[in-house]
Write a structure and sequence with these properties.
Chain A is an alpha+beta fold. Helix content of chain A is 52%, strand content 16%. In chain A, strands 1, 2, 3, 4, 5, 6, 7, 8, 9, 10, 11, 12, 13 and 14 form a 14-stranded mixed sheet that branches. A six-stranded mixed sheet of chain A has the order 19-21-26-23-25-22. Chain B is of the alpha+beta class. A two-stranded antiparallel ribbon of chain B has the order 1-2. The chains are: A alpha+beta, B alpha+beta.
Chain lengths: 866, 109
Amino acid sequence: MSITVPPPCPDRKEGPPTAALHLLALIARTPDFPFLEADLREEHAFKSQSRGHRKADVWYWAQVLSSLPRFALSSLRWSLIMLKNSLTVARRHMIRHKGFSALNILGLASGLACCLLIGFWILDELSFDRFHKNAASIYRVESDTNYNGRILHIYWTPHPLGPALASEFPEIAQSARAWSQRKPLIRAGESATDAWTVWAVDPSFLDMFTFPLKAGNPTRALEGTTSVVLTERAAKAIFGNEEPVGRKLEITGGGTFAVTAILADIPRNSSLQFDVLIPYTALESLGRVGNQFNDNQTATFVRLADRTAADATRAKIRDFIRTKIPESGMKLDLLGLTRLRLQTWSGYEKRTAVESLRLFSLIAALVLLIGCINFMNLSTARSARRAKEIGLRRTVGARRGHIVRQFYGEAAVYALFAMVLALATVTLAFPAFNALTGKSMSWSTLGAGRMALGAIAVALVTALISGSYPAFVLSSFRPVQALRGTLSRGSGGILFRRILVVVQFALSAGLLVGTGVASRQMAFIQNTPLGWSREQVLAVKIPAEARPTIESLKAEMKAVPGVLAAGLSDQSPENSTWSSSGFDWEGRDPQTKIDITYMTVDEGYVEALGIKVVEGRNFSAGLPTDKTEAVLVNETFARMMGTGSAVGKRFDFWSRKGTIVGVLGDFHFQPLRNKIEPLAVKWRESDWTRFMLLRLGPSGVSSVIASLERIWKSRFPGIPFHYSFLDDDFAALYQTELQTASLFKVFSGLAVLVACLGLLGLAAHAAERRTREFAIRKVLGAPARTLIGLICREFVVLIVLANVLSWPAAYLLMRGWLNRFAYRADFSVLLFAGALGISLMIGLLTVAQQALRAARTNPVGALKQE
Amino acid sequence: MATLPTFNEYMFLASILALEEEAYGVSIRDKAAQLSGTKVTYGCLYSHLDQLHRKGFVVKRMGKPTLERGGRSKIFYSVTPAGLKALKAFASVQKSIRAALPHLALDGQ
C-alpha cells in the first residue's frame, strides 16, 4: 500500500500542522488513509474557525498522538499476517523443492555444528579458574632468568618470597604458597595408595581460592603442622565410607596428619589440581624448605588489593629478588589466574594456547561461512523460479523492503531448521568430541539454557549473513520483466556465484592442505628413529620404599622368562629434562657457560632401550670404579668436544673427577619439538632412581606382567605396582598435536562436504539453464561425453583456481604450526597436488552426476517447451 | 459469517445506522462519542471501520470533494443487511438482559 502525504495547503495558516501530518502518514495503516486525513482536516478547519488556530492545532496533535497506540497495534497485526504468509510460502517452497532444501539445510547445519562444537570447546577453555570469587585479582608469581642469552621462564619461586611480598608491598593483599609433591604413598590403617597429589600450602590458600568445603572450617583447616585437608574422592578412597574428619593418615616423607576438613572434588575446569592439602609449616618443621631467595621450589600466588593495579604492581616487584640477592638475574612477573590455562610450556620457554584457540575459531568461522555461501549460491541460482512470485507481489503493492524482509524470513526459517539439526548432531557428537579433545563436555556442564540462547543467536546471525545476498538480488527484480519472463535468467549473478564457489573451494583446499601437513608431521614423529626402541619396553615406577633393595628386585625381575633386559634410570627416557651447568671437561672453553642435560642410569639401561654404543664401552657392573668415575656422552657432545676420540678424556661431574668411557649414538631423550642436545650419563645414585625399564620378549606379555606384579606384591605388600609402556608414554607427549591433527581432519572433511553440496546445487542449476542448448547439440549429434565435458570444464577451471589461491595462505599458516617442531616433515609439492586432486575428484564426481542427467534427457521434451 | 462484531464495533455500527445518509468519519466519531459517553480517537475510529468493512458489516461509498477537506472527498458508510442483522441480534440480547436484570437499567438512570 502506498501512502502519500498530500501537499500542505497553499496557505499554511489554514492547514493542520505539517509535522503531525507526516507522523500520521508514517503510522496510520488503513486503506482509507486519505479519508481519515480529510476528516481530520475538516474538523481542524472547523475548530480553527470557531476556537482559533492555536487550539485547533493542539486538538490535531492530541488526535494524532492519542491514535498512535491503536495504529501501532494494527500495524503489528498486519505484519504478523504478512509473516504468516511468508512462512506459508517458505514452507511450500521447501516441500516442493525437497532436494534443494535438503542441500541448503544440510550445508548450514554442518557449518553450524562445527561452529557450535568449536564454540563450546573455546568456552570450556575460557571457563577455567573463573569459579574463584577473587579470580580476577589473583596472580601467580613467575620469573624470567637470563641464562646465557636464553630467557628461562619458570613459575617456581623461592620459599620466603610470598610472605616477603605480602609484607613489603601494600598492593599485595595476601599471598599463598603451594609446594607440590606428586603422588607420594599415603597410608591409613591397612590401606596404602599413591594415587593422590599432595600440596603443602599456606593457611591463606583456602581463603584466597574459593574451593568449596564440604566439612570443616576453611580458616582453621590448615592450622598447626599436622592437619590435612582431603578432597571428597580422596577421603572416600582412603577411608572408605567412614567419617574421615578426625582420622589420621601417614604421608611418606611427611609424617602423620589428622584430617580437619573435606573439600568438594576439585572442579574439572580448575588449573590447580590436587587432592590432599597439608600445612606449609609441616614442610618447614621437616626442614624441607630453606629460607634462601635462591632456591626456587614453590609456587607463589598473590591477591592484589586493587585488581586494576596489576601492571603497576608487576613493575614494582620486578627487581625484588635483587634487593635480597644483589647478583641475582631473576626478574619477577605476574600471571593472572584466569590466564594459567592458556599458558603452555615448551621446555622453559613460555607459549600461549591462545594461538590454537584462534586457529580453531578461524576454522569454525570458515566452515560456517562456506555453509552460508552455499545458501546464497543455491538461493540465487533458483531465483528465476521465484521471479514470477516476486513480480506479482510487487504489482499488488509490495515495496522492496517487504520482499527483502520476506527473504530474510525465509533464510531464518532455513537457519532455524539447520540449527535444530546441528544441535541434534552436536548432542550425538559430544562423546566422540570429548574423546578427541580430552574434555568432558555435555549440555549440563555448559548450561543448556545459556547455550540454547547462544545457538538461536548464532542461527539468526547465520540467517542475516546468508539471507542478505538473495534478499537484495531478488528484491531488485523489476516487476514487469519478472512477470513477463523476460528477466535474464540469473545471468547477472553468475560471476558472483562463481566467485562464491571459488571462495568455498579455496577454503576447503586450504583446510585439506592443513590436514595433510598435520597428518604427515604426526606420521613423521611416529616413524622417526629415536635412537632407542620404544616397543615392548615397560617402565615400572619405583617409589622411595623400593629404592634400598632395588638391585635384588631388578635381578629377580630380570630372571622372569620373557624379560630380555632390565635397566634403572632417574628419568623417563622419552622426556629427560634435568640439566646442569656444573660440569667441566677436557678442552672446555672456560668462557662459555653451557647447560648439559644429564641422566643417571645403570649398566642395563643402554641394553633395555637398545641404544647403540658407537665408541668405547657401556658401563660395567663388574668395575667398581665405573660407579664413581665413568661417564658416557652422546655423539652431539662428542662432536662439541672437537676432533679426536672423546673416549678417555676427562669429564668432571660437579667437581668430582670422571673419565669418558664410551660414546652413545644420538637418541631423542626429549620430545621431537626439541633438538638433540649434548648429554652426559653417569652411574645412578640410589636416591634418584625412579624407573626400572624392562625390555620384554615379543610373546606372552600379559603373563610376564602378571609374574612381575606377583614379585612386586610379595616384596612390597600395600604399595601399588605402577607400570606403563613407553610407546604409550611417547604418544602422550604429542597429545595436543595429535588432537590438532584429528580435529583438522574432521573439520576439513566437513568443509569439503559442505562445499560439494554447494557445487551440486550449482551444477544442477547450470545443467538446467542449458537444457535447450544441450538438446540442440544432441539433436545435431553430439555424444554424451561432449556434453558432460562442457559442464565439467566450467567447474574444473573454478576448482583449480580456488586451489591455487588457497596455497599461499595455507603454506604460511602451517609453516607457523610446524615451526614448533625441531624435527619436522617439511612441505612437499605432493601435499598441494593432493589437495587439488581430492577437491577436483570430489568436485567432478558431484558435477558429473548432474551433467550425466542433463546429457541423458530426451532432447524432444526440452525442445518442445513453449 | 461466523465472525461477530466486537462491543465497540456494535457501537460504531449503531452510530452509522443512526446517521443514515450522513455517516462519514467526522459525524460517526461525534455520534459514537455521544452514544458511548466517552472520547473516541480517529485511530480507534478507523481501525474499527476497517474491521467492520473487512467483516462485511458496512459498505463504503465515495462522496464529492469539498473545499474544507483540502479538496478531498468524503467516504460515506452504510450498514449492510448482515450488519443490520448483527445489530438486531445485539439489541434483542440487550433487551433480554434488561428484562432479566431490571436493576441494571435502573442503575444507569
